[in-house]
Amino acid sequence: MVIDTSAPLQNLGAPASLKIVPLGGLGEIGKNTMAIIYGNDLILVDAGLAFPSEDMLGVDIVLPDISFLKEHQAKLKALLVTHGHEDHIGGIPHILQAVDLPVIYGPALALGLIEEKLKEYGLEDRTIMRPVRPRQQVKIGCFTVQFIRCTHSIADAYSLVIQTPVGTLIHTGDFKFDFTPVDGEQYDIASLTAAAEEGILLLMSDSTNTEREGYTPSERTVWRKLDEVFANAQKRIIVTTFASNVHRIRQILQAAIKYDRRVCILGRSMLNLAGIARELGYMTFPDGLLVRVEEINQMPLDRVVVLTTGSQGEPLSALSRIARDEHKQIKIVPGDTVIISATPIPGNERSIANTINNLFLRGANVIYGRDAGVHVSGHACKEEQKLMINLCRPKFFMPIHGELRMLVKHADLAVECGVARQNTFIMENGEVLELFKDRGQKIGRVKSGIVLIDSNGSWEIDQQTVEERLLLAEDGVVNITLTVGAGKEVIAGPDITIRGLILPRDVLPEDFLLQLKSDVLQILQEKTTIAKLSGEDLRSYLLGAINKHFWENLKSTPLVQLLLQEVKTNRPAIKSQSKAAE
Fold first, then answer.
1. Architecture category of domain 463-581 in CATH
2. 464 in helix, strand or coil?
3. 50 neighbors 28 (Cβ within 8 angstroms)
4. Which segments within 369-439 are labelled E, that is strand?
């Protein structure tokens, strides 16, 4: 049966089946958003954002298309949050601007971070937030959801056990098996195995580190290296990490206390997180530990720690500006120690390398990289993923949270662990997985995609604008103004200006413009084609012909802006330059 790839959900599958609809997070890193539907009940697991790739010029955040949620607003009962990372909660304000979320359930730390976000957008009254405790069960429509503690790089993280009329689902969230966590909160394996004893229909499991062998080291191992660096540093210590990494920030503050250093936190997101985590009891530190950035230049160099955002080389982050010597208050002093306590998100490698090079250029001692010991991942490696599969013993398996190659390799692991190949489902965003007690199948697709947001967080950018910016950056812009009469004769122009165009060697700009004007006039001599066209059709034809001309003659694709005016007149036409020369 051929199914419309954007068919309404009610036309897909049986009414009494369970449907899993990923709207983000599959085939990519970020914007994790998963809808689970049975009958008239829809619950959403996480609502994240992603950060733009290098070719998304002027884009600040990337969100999933939530047209599906708008269409099924009446069914949407609740949002379940697994933890407080941006790729799981960053999209919530934008969803709330478009649909109603009756209630959000999640860990206290994540809800504290969400509350701050909603205040920024004036949305704090648009939903109800209910914090959950470990092993707490919540009844939502036909679903019963149990939140069980898991270990990750942020405190207060949960996996979900979701009981449905068809069977039990496990959504791992982001996890690893850390048996010596810095906060003492281990993965609740007992609750996981208890669910497995009852039988698990579907396991949806984090795939991020599927390509890495072995086990992810414990967060506690980072302390030894941080302690060593702090003990040996002679001048200032500048540390960057993910703003939401509570465990890492906690360790850095502990090291600062041990070595009698004061800490300046740069970056609003990191400062907010430290305040919320302290208020909720996830970290403690004395009142005098934190100092303002204006104070640190008056302090001895060996008594200062700067904790900053910018671990991904973001151009406007404090660390990047420090590295480029553009920060107003902080300049690198030769001998400063810079610790990059993070690994690159795919796509950010070049930006991070540029930051590191600039720091070395200014005399800093930079400690970075997977082998430096100052960072461990928050995601499970291969052996832990196998352990998760074997603990759950699911009938069906769906890898989540990862690029396509990660999902494929994770599905292969599930087969190694005894899941039937036909029971593994490598999904794409928008695809619908239908589950019954004894079988599962892909049954079609709902509308999905991406929404591009600019820096103020409220303006959407269409894909055409992004493509035009790429053309501008790569091949420049050509502006053409042209007026034609009723018979398509040229009345005025073409007036042409060029910006950022790379011209052939030994060709002067004025000569190039004269030739280009002649070429445009020559295109207009194709009367048999042009006479039939008018308005937007004529403009499109001319743009196509001009773009083809540039590609054939310059092998470039500049952004061509054509201002075309059509008038009814009997004024004589302008001859092409070649005719005039005769």
1. Roll (3.10)
2. helix
3. yes
4. 396-400, 431-435
d(CA 256, CA 248): 12
Query: Closest Cα partner for 173 from 32, 345, 343?
Result: 32
- DSSP state letters, 399-468: EESB-HHHHHHHHHHHHHTT--GGGB----TTEEEEE-SS-EEEEEE----EEEE-TTSS-EE-HHHHHH
Q: What is the pLDDT of residue 269?
A: 83
Domain with CATH 3.40.50.10710 in the chain: 220-372
Question: Tokens 């070429």 label which residue?
Answer: 519
- Token pair 């490598």 in the structure block, residue: 426
Strand partners, 490: 484
- In degrees and rounded to multiples of 5, residue 536 shows phi and psi of -65, -30
Please say whether the structural domain 220-372 has been given the CATH code 3.40.50.10710.
yes
Beta carbons of 73 and 100 less than 8 angstroms apart: yes
pLDDT 10s digits, 465-501: 555 565 555 667 777 787 777 666 777 777 777 777 7
**Tens-place pLDDT, residues 493-539:** 777 777 777 777 777 777 777 777 777 777 767 656 666 666 677 77
- pTM higher than the cut 0.70: yes
Q: Look up residue 430 and give its amino acid.
A: G
Beta carbons of 229 and 339 less than 8 angstroms apart: yes
Q: Which CATH superfamily is domain 9-214+377-461 in?
A: Ribonuclease Z/Hydroxyacylglutathione hydrolase-like (3.60.15.10)
Helix (H) or strand (E) holding 4: none
Rounded CA-CA distance 344/217 in Å is: 17
The DSSP line for 129-175 is EEE--TT-EEEETTEEEEEEEEB-SSSSEEEEEEE-SS-EEEE--S-
328 Cβ contact partners less than 8 Å away, ≥ 6 residues apart: none
Residue 37, helix vs strand vs coil: strand
